[in-house]
Every structure is written in C-alpha cells, then in structure tokens.
C-alpha cells in the first residue's frame, strides 16, 4: 500500500504541475471542468452572489415538501467532506450540505464541508498528502472520474460495499456505462452523483445562413465536416471570422471522448492491456490533424487564444464565432444564463462508419471515501441523501444532467414537462455502447499525456501518429504491468 500511495502521489503531483501551466479550471455540478477565467470566478472572488447562484440553492423545508425525510438511523456524529465544486456549483453544494445538516440535526449528525481546488485535492496531490498524514476527509466528490479511478486502483479509497449495504443504497440498477467507474476488480469504490451526455450543439440560424437544413443536422462524420466547412468564414487576410467547428474547443482536458465516438477501446480490464494503436484511434487522430492542416494550426491558435470560457458570455458559440461545438448537457445552462438570446439545437455526436452511433461517454462527478476515513458510514448516508430525486431536482433542472438509472428519469420534472433535449439525452443514455473510457490504474497520468499528444498532432509537432501512439502504449503498458 505505501509503495502504491507514494507512486501515485509523485505521478499526480507531476500532472498537477502540467495543469498549473494551463491556468486554473472551475468545476461545475455537471462534471465539466473547462471554465478557465470566467465571469463566474470573477464574481466569486468579489464575494458576490449572482441571481443564477441564488436560483440553485435548496433548503430542508423544500426537500421535506417533496417527500424527503431523514433516514431512521442510529448513526450520529460529524464527518468531513471535501468538494471539488466552485462558482454556481459551490453555492449549490453548500446549500445541499446545509439542507442535510438541518434534516439530521436532531440525530446529532453534521457534515463539515470544505471546497478544495483541483478535484477535491485529487489532481494536485493534496488528498494523498492528507491520507498519508492521517488527516484524510471522510468523503470527497471529484469532477474528474478518470483521476478518481486511478486513486481507487492504487488503493487510496475504501471499498464501499459494507457501507452501502448499511444505508441500503443499491447500485445494481445504475446504467451499465456508469458501472465502469463504480467497480474496480468487481468491488465498488466510486459512486456517480449523476451523469452527463455528450452532444453536438449547433446554431440553426448560422446553419440557414450557410445554406444548410437545421431540421436535418449531421449524422455522419462526412456530413459534420461538410457543415463545418459551409459555416466557416475566412477574412481576406487569411484570418477567420468564424469557424464551423473546432472539434477540440470544449474538450481541452478531455483525452478520450472523441476516440470513444470513433469506436476506440483504449483499455481492456479483463486482460489489463492498453490499445492506443487501433485503427479507430489512428483514424480519430488523423481527423483532428486534418482540421489543423486545413485551417492552419497557427490561425486556429490565434483565433482560440482570445475566446472566453464555457461559463462566460464571450464563449465562441455564444458570440457566433463558431457554429457548432461538442460538449455536454451542462452547456445548455451556460447558454441560458449567459446567452439567453442565442438560438441553438442539439443532436447526437456524428461518428464515422463503424463508430459508436447515437451513444455517449458518461461524464460524471464521483463520490469516494478516502483510506483512513473515520466515519465511512456517515459518508455513505450523505451519498444516499445526495442520490435522492428531491436533492437532484434543481441540479437536473439547471444543468440537464441525468440520473444514474433509466427509471429515475420518470421522476424528473424535465421528463414530466416533455423537454425535447432531455428526451434525447435519455435515448442516448440507454445506448448499450456507452461507457467511461480508459479507466485503469494509470488513468490520470495517461489522460494528461494523451492531451499533450493530441495537441502535438493538431498543431503539427507530431506527424508519425502510429509510431508515437506505440511509444505511449509501451510506456503506460509497462506501468500497468508493474502495478500488478
């Protein structure tokens, strides 16, 4: 155990150093982490509370009116909870904790929350330091499921089965794709709070202007490329006034979503083998490379350098500087708050022949109980509280995130109200192709390395895609083999 913890600590500290050069990201309840330098953060620094933040607060009385009552339990005491959330989501999570404390105060149960940057201390080594020093929190929620899974695989989290049984929380009915992250070697270590669906957002007004039919969005990769070209406007000096699509725009730190849609299977848990050199992976990288070559990587870089973050009115989609973008359901809330007049539609992410049609990766926030937790039973009780439909109702309504099982959709107001986008999300969530890619003991380090590799492909620093993929595979396969 000590060797594994030490190795993981060094790995994640190195990864944190890489991240620090890119600027700090802000987490949301949706699982998104791409809001660098947003108005949300500026408001938070001033100590102000926005109207949007006020709207996401909940109270114990509201929850009781929706039928939620305190569990009949003999548990008592206080526990420590580290949350990764910031901005609007921090306000929401704080109100969730306050409601829990109010609901359970007569039983002497209290949650003490701390908002800890960089994925509840997972991305920068703070959590591992706390575990090693005997100061671990009792519970964390992380917005980076891939990094959290690495912690589980390296022995940094408690196995949850006895605690889930004690509070009667059953994960058998969760979507199969969610179970990818719940289980490590057939035992539960992580619990998704909710999950998210990846979509193609497109502006129907721009589509019409470009001579396209917004009622028939692209379904294949070839059609997506055609739409991107038709929407793109280049100035006389060669710079760009608008791009139809920059595929990686809102997937900056997301290494494996696009390869997933191409049909790549990065890791086989049964054999403990990586497969980074598959034809599907190579095809995905060649597709990204083609965008860099076609539109000039330097001009793309110049164009994107001044763009606002996802939760900013200066985001390229909100200002009409891109006609399409690939991101999750949480972006609908950003549009509602920061660009309510922008017209948009969504559809399934188009894929090449042989890809995962009408499917999605599951982007999720995950709960975990760190090794050394003094109150894992209370942590499990809070997890169960957070899984209830009443607690998640505002979360679902704000972010259009989805429950972890199909049956729970029927209890969500968006479903009851016939929301068309939510209907599509439900359809995609039920695809048998869904999952969370590349979950293994070196997930976090591999993801960071792969983002760097992808940047090299896009901007022309890497030309031998197959060869460089093989080098990555050899390096990280050795790490996997040594970890066994």
TrEMBL record:
Secretion signal, residue range per the UniProt entry: 1-20
Protein name: ABC transporter substrate-binding protein
Sequence segments annotated as region (Disordered): 22-58
Gene3D superfamilies with a match to the protein in the record: Periplasmic binding protein-like II
Entry-linked PROSITE patterns: PROKAR_LIPOPROTEIN (PS51257)
Biased composition regions of type Low complexity, renumbered to the chain: 25-38
Organism, as annotated: Blautia parvula
Keywords: Signal
Transmembrane regions listed in the UniProt entry: none
InterPro entries (UniProt xref): Bact_solute-bd_prot1, SBP
One Pfam family here: SBP_bac_1
